[in-house]
Amino acid sequence: MNSHYPEEYEPIELCGYRHVHEDLVKQVLSAMPEEDDLYSLADFFKVFADSTRIRILYVLLCSETCVCDIAQLLNMTQPAISHQLRILKQMNLVRARREGKTVFYSLADDHIASILRIGMEHICEE
Q: What predicted TM-score, i.e. pTM, was given to this entire model?
């Protein structure tokens, strides 16, 4: 192994010579989303990079829940939960529903549940 890489990383293998496959390049370029859309997608996935937000999403995957219950389940303060819910709501990952003085949160749609399930399937593969 190359000493420039930590043990857990293997160097990427490169082509032995430079040969651009023009047809493939054109096909991929025609299928690529606009740059702004790719940045938005990157921002979307950044939200999933926080374990507290993932834990909140998993709570909401199980049930529509209020801030008080989420705080109890995750052993956190309500302000800390509210802060994370605000971020999740801004990114359209959760939605809120008011019932009297209580606000209930749920996943915004089935896509979010699918992303969580697929992500978990991927990391549990062996």
A: 0.79
